[in-house]
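Writing this down once: the sequence line spells out the residues, with the fold written below as integer tokens. This is how one looks:
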Amino acid sequence: MIRKVLIISALAVGLLAVPAWATNIEFTGAPYSNWKTHGPHQYSGTKGSIGFTLGAFKKNGQKNAWLGFKKRTVNGVTAVGIGVHRGRAGNEIGPGEQLSFALDNGQSVYLSSFTVNFLYLEYTNKPHKKPFFEGLKYSVDDGLTWQTVFQNDPTQTFPKPFTSGAMTVDLSGTKATSLLLRSSGIKDHDFTLNSVRVAGAETPEPTTLLLFGSVLAGGAFLRRRRHA
């Protein structure tokens, strides 16, 4: 009898639990597309009920930089994203620049992944040279530990057919709530942030917890009666 009660309670928890979810925050349209010259130093936005803040900085943390937007079509392939504007053209995240993304405090959500564009070096003025992938670095939460996603290497040639230089980095399992992006630091190596994927953990509803607690209490009562 007790075993049946526990099996029923487990099934109830599975049915009433709130399923995990995920959503993309994309930086491809307005208001980001209005930053073609340059945007603000910092921007606070929302996607549904999710609040976040973007920031543009110099690598040393100084705020004399602005958010920027880049959209470009090459060989029929369009790449879009946001970066840093620091008095030079490009609006990408380049050497000496840093872009931050942070979820608002108090939200039970975390970063699942992020996607970048323009992660390649294209010699538009030197057609005899082959394009190649660039490098980027990222840090989650503390800004102290940096991971290199792709180590720039001129021997690794650009793929065919032509792509937008996009790459998605998986952050699942880290439960990170903020992200810092940097270039690898080599001249002309830069990229843009296209989107961030935000996820929520699967959590039981209060009614599920109440039901489960009641079932456990009932099971304990039955066990006492059985041994009385």
About this structure: The CA atoms of residues 135 and 195 lie 18 Å apart. The chain has two domains: 1-19+204-228, 21-201. Helices lie at 2-16, 206-227.
